[in-house]
Fold this protein.
Amino acid sequence: MEYRISDKMKDMKPSAIREIFKALADPTIISFAAGNPAPESFPVADLSRISADIFRDSSTAALQYSITEGYPALRQDVIDRLSTRFGIGRDFDMTIITSGGQQGIELLCKTMCNEGDVVICENPSFIGALNAFRSCGAQTVGVELEEDGVNIEALEATIKANPNAKILYLIPTFQNPAGTCMSLEKRKAALALAKKYNLLILEDNPYGELRFAGEEIPTIKSMDEDGVVVYSGSYSKVLSAGMRIGFICGPEPVVQKMVVAKQVEDVHTNIFFQMLCHRYIAECDMDAHIEGIRALYRRKCGLMLSELDQHMPDCVKYTRPEGGLFIWCTLPDNIDQGLFVKKAMEKKVAVVPGQAFNCDTAAPSQCFRINYSTPSDEQIIAGVGYLADAVKAML
Amino acid sequence: MEYRISDKMKDMKPSAIREIFKALADPTIISFAAGNPAPESFPVADLSRISADIFRDSSTAALQYSITEGYPALRQDVIDRLSTRFGIGRDFDMTIITSGGQQGIELLCKTMCNEGDVVICENPSFIGALNAFRSCGAQTVGVELEEDGVNIEALEATIKANPNAKILYLIPTFQNPAGTCMSLEKRKAALALAKKYNLLILEDNPYGELRFAGEEIPTIKSMDEDGVVVYSGSYSKVLSAGMRIGFICGPEPVVQKMVVAKQVEDVHTNIFFQMLCHRYIAECDMDAHIEGIRALYRRKCGLMLSELDQHMPDCVKYTRPEGGLFIWCTLPDNIDQGLFVKKAMEKKVAVVPGQAFNCDTAAPSQCFRINYSTPSDEQIIAGVGYLADAVKAML
C-alpha cells in the first residue's frame, strides 16, 4: 500500500519540542524545555470538591453530548472576565469555548485560509501556531521581532508583498518564545495596518494573566472597534493545562464559521470540565488564585535570572521577563548553537533550540528558550550552572 | 471589514440536526432527532468514585499537559479490546486516542486529502463525517446504499470515475442513518477494491458494541492484512458522550501523520478523562456494563417498532435494526416529505429529514430518521402516535 498523504501534511513533522520531550523520559534530565505550568498552580482541592458535586447533582448533563459553542454559563464567565479585566468585547463579537487555545488558532486558519494563503507571523513565534497554519496548507511569512514588537515598516512591506495574506498572528504580551511585550504604539499601528489592508489579527494571549512585574499594556482586542481582531485565550495556565479549555472572542461572522469547523473536529469540548471551570469561577476566588500563581512565577523567574546573572558568561544575552513562562537566551556568534544544545543535553539539561520557532525552519538561530515554571528550585540552580559550564567550555 | 472566508468553509452551514436541536429548547417537544445515548448508559457511580481517586492520588498528571498520542495505559486498553473483541490490529497498525470518534474522521481526511480530492461515501451517510470531509475541502461522492451495504459494482465504477479519490468512508455495522449492516461478502469485496485501487477505507464503528439481535459480522479491519483500513471507534456510546474520547487504529505511517495533525488541533485529549476511562476498564466489568446497554436498547427499539407496527399506516416502510440507535423510515411517493417533517414538528415531534444525510445536499429524500435511545418510553409511545397521525392526515 502506497500512502498518498496530502501535500499540506506530507512534510510536516512532530514539533522539535515534542522530540525533546522523548529524551525527557530519562528522569535524571533537568528540563528547561517544557512550557508546562507549575503543578502548584492547579487548584486541586477545589476542583476535586466541585467534581464530586457535579457527579452528584448534574451527572447526566456533564456526561451527555452538548453544544459546539460551549457551556453557556462558562461562555458568560469568559465574556464577563474579558470585559471587566481586559476591556474586550463589543456588540459585533461572539465568544465560544475551544479545546485549549491551540484549537482556536487552528480553527481560525481553517476558516480563513485556502491552501497557499499566507499567515504573517512574528519571527520567531509559537511553534504550535506555526505548525497549525502549515497543517491547513497556509504559508507562514515572518516579520522580524524587535524588543518592543514587530518592526512596523517591515510589517507593512510584508503585507503589501503578500496580497493573499489573510491573518496577522501576534502574541503581543509575553511573546513565546522571545518573552517581549509589544508597545502600545506598535499595537495601535498593527491594528491600523490590519484594518487598512483588510487582514484579520489573531491576538494570542495565553499568558495575559501572568504579569508579575511592570505596567500592563492594553490588548489589541480592547482597541478593536471594527471587528478586525480575533482574540484567543486559555485556562491552561491558570486552572489546568490537561483539561484543554480555551476560548475565542471575535467578530460574529468569523466565529460562527469557526463553530461549524469545530463541530466537525470534536463536536464540543469535554463538557464535564467546562462545568467544572464554571463552578470554580462562581464559587472560588479566581483573582486570589491567579495572584498566587503570579507570586510563584515572580519568585521562580527571579531565581533563574539571579542564577544566570551570577554564573552565565556576559557574552550570553537573555531577556528579563515581566510575565509568562520563558527566558530567551542569545549565544555569541562564536558559539555554535547546535553544538551548545547538544552539549547541554550531555550535561542533562534540555533547552529548546531557537530555530524551532522560526517561520523558515531552515534558517539558523543563535538563540535558545528556557522555562522556569516547570523545574524545581533545585533544578533551576543546578541546570543554570550546567548551562553556564557548557558555555564556558565552548569559549 | 469584509471577511474573506476560505473556499472550503464559506458555504458550510451548521448541520441540519443542529438546527433541529435549537427547536428542542421547547420542553414540550418530543425529540426523535438526537443521536444521544440513554443517560442510564453512563456508569455514574463508578466514574464518580474513580474521579475522586484520581484527584487524590494522581492530580498532577491528570491536570498537566500530556502527550498527543494519548494516555499510554488507555491506548493499551483499546489495543487489547480491539484484538480480543474484534480481531483487530496487526504489526503494521498504530492506535491513538482522539477527542471523540469525530476527530479521527476529520484528522484522516486532513492527512490524506488535498482540496478537491474525493471521499467516496455510502449514500446516505453520517452528516458529521460528510461535513468533516467538506471542511477539509474534499468532495463527497455517494454510492447508493442497499439493504446489505453499498452496491459493489456502483462502488467500483465510482472509484474508476474518481482517480483523485483517497478515502472510502464506510459505516458497515448499524449504518447511520440507514441502520443497515453490510454483508460479509460486500465487506470482503470493498476491501479487495480498496486494495486494488490504492484507496484507504475509513471504517467507522461507533455502534459496534451495541448489537442486541442477530449474528455478528466481522469488521473489515479484522480482515485487513495489508494496511488498507483505518478503524475509528469511540467510548461515547458505552461510557460517556460528553467526555469526547474515541480512538483510531490504522497503518502506522498514516496514523503518525494524524498525530501531527492532532497536535496542532488540540495538543491532546482531556487527560483526566483518559485516566478515568482507563481505571474504569481496569476496575469495573465493562462487558457486563455493555450487556446492560444492549438490553436497554433492545427493549426501547422493540417498543418503538411495536408502536410503529400498531399505528403507522402500511405505506410507510421502516427498518428493523439489530443494533445501534436509529430506525430509518421511508414515506410513500405521494407524501411530500418536507411537509411531513413540518407537520410532525407542529405535533411537537422532531425527526431528522433524510436529505441531511445525502452526499448531494440538494438531492431530495423520502426518508426520515428516528431515535429510540434518548426519548422515554412515554415519549416513544406518544411520539410514534403523533407521527402516525401526521401520515394519516396526509393520505
